[in-house]
Amino acid sequence: GPSLKDDPKYGKFFKMLKAGVPRPAIENKMRSEGLDPAVLDNPNGPVPAAADASAGGGGGGGTAAKDDPKYAKYFKMLKAGVPRPAVENKMRSDGLDPAVLENPNAPAPAEESKSDGAAAAGPAAKDDPKYAKFFKMMKA
């Protein structure tokens, strides 16, 4: 196939490098598009096969994380200029893995939310000894 620098998807990043755009900025842009920034080290290398597959609409891997309703709001926060560490902390507090932000076009992680699982498996909050004292406080 064509070399990376001639590929329509990757070529623009090599043009950005040539034009003097700071490499970290280019790497962030590549990640935001679901591409591997490591290819910048090898402009004449072949286009990665995996990249072509993922660009083809998810390849049956489910909804892209940035389009998944559970994650979309975090990508919107980033787009709105909220600092990334703040968005990551918000995701953690909501019981989600901030690593999802690394690759917005990757399929969203399977439904395995800790908070839902724990509640379903254990006793109801009012019967849980850990929370019983709070319900007693409410009665007082």
Return Rg in Å. 21 Å
Instruction: Tell me the number of helical segments per DSSP (H or I, 4 or more residues long).
Output: 7
End-to-end Cα distance, whole Å, is 74 Å
List low-confidence stretches: 51-60, 112-120
Major beta sheet, specifics? none
Number of strands: 0
Q: What is the helix content?
A: 40-55%
Structural class: mainly alpha
What is the succession of H and E elements?
HHHHHHH
| Shape assignment | elongated
User: What is the strand content?
Assistant: under 5%
Q: Output mean pLDDT.
A: 77
What key phrases describe this protein's structure?
about 140 residues; mainly alpha; elongated
Characterize the structure shown.
The chain is 49% helix and 0% strand. It has seven helices and no strands. The termini are far apart. Mean pLDDT is 77; it is low at 51-60 and 112-120.
Q: How are the SSEs placed, and which strands pair?
A:
Layout: H1 8-18, H2 23-32, H3 49-55, H4 69-79, H5 84-93, H6 114-121, H7 129-139
Task: Provide a quick synopsis of the model.
With 140 residues, the protein is mainly alpha-helical. 49% of the residues lie in helices and 0% in strands.
